[in-house]
Design brief:
three-stranded antiparallel sheet
């Protein structure tokens, strides 16, 4: 069985000084993953944001 680790967070801020303006951002983390069932090859962990 392949073991996967994934975490994410999403932030939202409402700018009170400018009505109607909302800022949204997030970060996603994916841990190291095995490519095959023998765990011979590994994909490195990575982080993405938006």
């Amino acid at each position: 069985m392949l073991d996967k680790k994934l975490a994410n967070t999403l932030g939202r801020a409402i700018a009170l000084a400018l009505p109607g303006l909302t800022l949204i951002g997030g970060v996603f983390y994916t841990g190291e993953q095995q490519v095959d069932s023998l765990n011979t090859y590994m994909l490195p962990s990575f982080t993405t944001d938006f």
